[in-house]
Model the fold of this input.
Amino acid sequence: MFRVTVSRVRAAAIAPCRRASAGAGAVNRLLSNIPEDTVYGGPKPQTVSQRTTLTNLRQKYRRGEPITVVTAYDYPSAVHVDTAGMDICLVGDSAAMVVHGHDTTLPISLDEMLVHCRSVARGATRPLLVGDLPFGSYESSPSQAVDSAVRMLREGGMDAIKLEGGAPSRITAAKAIVEAGIAVMGHVGLTPQAISVLGGFRPQGRMSPAPLRSNRLWGVLVQVVETALALQEAGCFSIVLECVPAPVAAAATSALQIPTIGIGAGPFCSGQVLIYHDLLGMFQHPHHAKVSPKFCKQYGNVGDVINKALLEYKQEVGSKSFPGPRHTPYKINADDVAGFLDELQKRGWGEAATAAAAAVQTMDISPKPLD
Done:
């Protein structure tokens, strides 16, 4: 079942998240974690069309309706995700790769993530907002994890946080954050922040050639399910399953009583998540090609559209066909032009007056008719 309810996250999420801490800049948005009129008489209940809440997600999960999740990293992408009606908008630490150009997610800091979170919070008014705790912001101790999670809500305007991994220390961190009144999404399978010990971006639980199959391999497969169950027990409201075989994801989804969100984990999860830039086909650069996941379907070729538009702009500027009269909207009438040219001549700026007169002819400013 869902171990985290709206009432549990209310204490940490309602008042603090309505504004950023001093110096961080205001985050102006309606939060999904608001008091209901069954408890308080002030705010009116928000409908599903206004805000997605943990209660909405729980109801959707129980009805067997797939949950849609897309990442966003700034105001424009947040507006797009919001307009499309996604259930969850994840401000992922993948920003390190698709926004900042790194090869991994490790370099991005909590302060940098908070900038992305605040931008997204201004643009997304409907989905539940989940912020990724970046590498180095929660591993040291449960206290550090709680402090970082609080900043995600208070300064970043998030509704919940996500953390990676199922090691005992990560499960302890998740439990501590939940007990602090903050909703947590878990993440198992391929955990990009752990590439140092994984040896790179490797799918987890992948079947080995027949001679290598053993109880050890089966134990790895089962461990994915066990880890997801441990995170559920810690209080997570959902689990991301990344880069695991479909049967393993199906087993985890069946064993859990909270939604699973798949990414490269097949069709048997409770929902799916993709990276904004990947699904839109935004990049064709070789750097991005080497980190583009095999499991991602491109639903558009936005990168081609962007490149075409930029090349066309460059060509028109080079040929001086842009801007023309249509895109030079600020006009002055003929009498004012005459006065302007006369004033330039009086000040001894003859060449400037000649240039202005030529511009009048080019822009076709007609003389003002006599009364």
In short: Residues 54-206+213-304 form a domain with the TIM Barrel fold (CATH 3.20.20.60).
